[in-house]
């Protein structure tokens, strides 16, 4: 029984919501809170107090006897924002209760015991069907007990703190196995069932055939990802209903596409009827994979349905994630979600440091030093091809002078790729300087490590002639000091010495600095590799210390006015 105690109107309202949701599990204690807490403490296994934590600490302190005897206590604040596990997190079940209460009241559960503070994804929230001892294995994970992962197929799971050996297991399989004691079985959607049917084939016949084929092959129906057939059968009622009853999508392919798939058992009948020598096998195999059940016919006479089962290889997932310029609040929520989704993180050590606290326990971190770019890209792709969920990180936007292109140049179409944009240095600097990018602008990297200087110079010249605002990335390093003055010189051939120039160093990082100067007075020696330099166009102005490039409205209205 859970005792509920409140003191205020807001508390009573929240209390009543809990009581209404769990009528058989809860009991409301009315009256003076001191008496109510003492009575509930003596009579209940758990308490939810809609009171300040301090008040509850004072009330229960004299009643405490030990970890195993005391009830679990959860406090919910007046605003209903937090459900705090105060006492008996494990033995008293308060951690679990805080989560339940949180879910019900839309409050954030606050859990401070060591193993629970590490936030683990729930086994039932991985997006895969799950069977077996979910509660027991979840608790073992939370309590830091050894849990072994036995993956029979590759699948991009999120990070889980699993060990080589353990008395608990998480088994990832599409085979028809019963979960053992202390085991959960996760069902990856690895099976594609190709189906064919003649006109009017009953759903029972199709479904019976599919289920029988899976059962006899020792495969779980929970791992079926989709039914597949030929376009001409997209509306065939028996197939449509079978897919519906299995709870999976029906995917269809053109006869031409299926005719091109190599199958072990082609035949003339479907060729005459729908224009491909194979429907079931071809539709199952069209996306690649291993044919586990070759074409078989239903037992009815005449047989009206065929099916074949393929296990397709698990597709790894590569997220290419931009971390933004530095500040945590310029890291997007989507980037955060992808960092927590990945079980393998690949990146430059200094960027890993920037987000290490966000990673979930169990995340494998592959960090390397400056320079090893190609190798990082290759590692990330290799891990994804093994079926892992990988995040490849870069500062700013990972596609801007960064890891996205070398990685995607390596990647084949057997992995899924997700890009998460980040705030690139030019934008971070622009916001600090004012509005320098209000009209056409371009970024140019002055690093001639991978690009011949002639090419860079040609681009700078083109930007100069086209009067485009220019942001220089990689503007100057110890070994590369003549490129920036040279580039500024080219711009100066087309812009006056008074043209505003913004210099921003370490944008959004703790030692951020910026200054607004001019093309005529910028001292290149004050610029380094932590800096971007933005040079205005001929219309850019210093207005109240801010760099502003007009959008050209005035020019536009002047034109219109003259018409
Ligand atoms: N992918 C990054 C750029 C990598 S190139 C992005 O999108 O921002 C590295 C160059 O970016 C540095 O030499 C510097 O010119 C610039 N840069 C990156 N972060 C910066 C920051 N926080 N402040 C100023 N310049 C930065």
Automatic annotation (TrEMBL):
Residues 317-522 form the Tetrapyrrole methylase domain. GO terms for molecular function: cobalt-precorrin-5A acetaldehyde-lyase activity; precorrin-3B C17-methyltransferase activity. It holds the Pfam family CbiG_C. The keyword Transferase applies. Pathway: Cofactor biosynthesis; adenosylcobalamin biosynthesis. One of its GO terms (biological process) is cobalamin biosynthetic process. The keyword Methyltransferase applies. Residues 36-116 form the Cobalamin synthesis G N-terminal domain. Its EC number is 2.1.1.131, 3.7.1.12. Residues 191-309 form the CobE/GbiG C-terminal domain. InterPro entries: 4pyrrol_Mease (IPR000878), 4pyrrol_Methylase_sf (IPR035996), 4pyrrole_Mease_sub1 (IPR014777), 4pyrrole_Mease_sub2 (IPR014776), CbiG_N (IPR021744), Cbl_synth_CobJ/CibH_dom (IPR006363), CobE/GbiG_C (IPR002750), CobE/GbiG_C_sf (IPR036518). Keywords: Cobalamin biosynthesis, Hydrolase, Methyltransferase, S-adenosyl-L-methionine, Transferase. It comes from the Bacteria. NCBIfam families: cobJ_cbiH (TIGR01466). This is Cobalt-precorrin 5A hydrolase/precorrin-3B C17-methyltransferase.
């Amino acid at each position: 029984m859970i005792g509920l105690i409140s003191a205020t109107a807001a508390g009573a309202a929240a209390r009543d919501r809990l009581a209404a949701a769990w009528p058989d599990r809860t009991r409301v204690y009315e009256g003076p809170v001191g008496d109510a807490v003492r009575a509930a403490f003596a009579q209940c296994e758990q308490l939810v107090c809609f009171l300040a934590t301090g008040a509850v600490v004072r009330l229960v302190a004299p009643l405490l006897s030990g970890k195993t005897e005391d009830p679990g206590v959860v406090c919910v604040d007046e605003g209903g924002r937090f459900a705090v596990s105060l006492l008996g997190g494990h033995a008293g079940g308060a951690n679990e209760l805080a989560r339940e209460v949180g879910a019900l009241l839309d409050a954030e559960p606050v859990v401070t015991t060591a193993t629970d503070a590490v936030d683990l994804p729930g086994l039932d929230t991985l997006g895969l069907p799950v069977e077996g001892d979910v509660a027991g294995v979840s608790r073992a994970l939370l309590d830091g007990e050894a849990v072994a992962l036995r993956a029979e197929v590759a699948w991009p799971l999120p990070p889980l703190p699993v060990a080589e050996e353990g008395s608990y297991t998480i088994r990832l399989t599409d085979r028809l196995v019963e979960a053992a004691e202390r085991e959960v079985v996760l069902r990856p959607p690895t099976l594609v069932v190709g189906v064919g049917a003649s006109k009017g084939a009953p759903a029972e016949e199709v479904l019976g055939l599919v289920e029988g084929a899976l059962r006899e092959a020792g495969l779980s129906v929970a791992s079926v990802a989709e039914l597949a057939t030929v376009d001409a059968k997209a509306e065939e009622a028996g197939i449509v209903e079978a897919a519906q009853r299995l709870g999976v999508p029906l995917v269809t392919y053109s006869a031409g596409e299926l005719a091109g798939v190599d199958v072990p058992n082609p035949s003339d009948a479907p060729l005459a009827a729908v224009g491909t020598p194979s429907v079931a096998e071809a539709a199952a195999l069209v996306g690649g994979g291993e044919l586990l059940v070759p074409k078989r016919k239903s037992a009815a006479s005449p047989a009206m349905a065929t099916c074949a089962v393929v296990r397709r290889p698990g597709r790894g997932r590569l997220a290419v994630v931009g971390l933004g310029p530095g500040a945590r609040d310029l890291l997007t929520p989507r980037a955060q979600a992808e960092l927590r989704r990945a079980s393998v993180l690949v990146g430059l050590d200094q960027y890993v440091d920037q987000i290490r606290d966000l990673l979930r326990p169990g995340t494998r971190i592959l960090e390397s030093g400056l320079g090893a770019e190609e190798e990082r890209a290759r590692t990330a792709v290799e891990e994804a091809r093994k079926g892992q969920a990988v995040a490849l990180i870069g500062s700013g936007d990972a596609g801007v002078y960064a890891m996205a292109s070398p990685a995607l140049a390596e990647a084949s179409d057997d992995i899924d790729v997700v890009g998460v944009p980040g705030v690139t240095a030019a934008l971070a600097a622009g916001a600090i300087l004012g509005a320098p990018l209000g009209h056409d602008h371009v970024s140019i990297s002055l690093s001639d490590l991978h690009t011949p200087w002639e090419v860079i110079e040609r681009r700078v010249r083109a930007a100069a002639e086209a009067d485009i605002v220019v942001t220089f990335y990689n503007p100057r390093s110890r070994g590369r000091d003549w490129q920036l003055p040279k580039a500024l010189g080219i711009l100066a051939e087309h812009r006056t010495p008074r043209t505003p120039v913004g210099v921003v160093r370490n944008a959004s990082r703790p030692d951020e600095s910026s200054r607004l100067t001019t093309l005529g007075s910028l001292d290149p020696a004050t610029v380094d590799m932590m800096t971007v330099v933005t040079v205005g166009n001929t219309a850019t102005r210093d207005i109240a210390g801010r760099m502003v490039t007009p959008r050209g409205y005035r020019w536009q209205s002047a034109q219109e006015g003259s018409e």
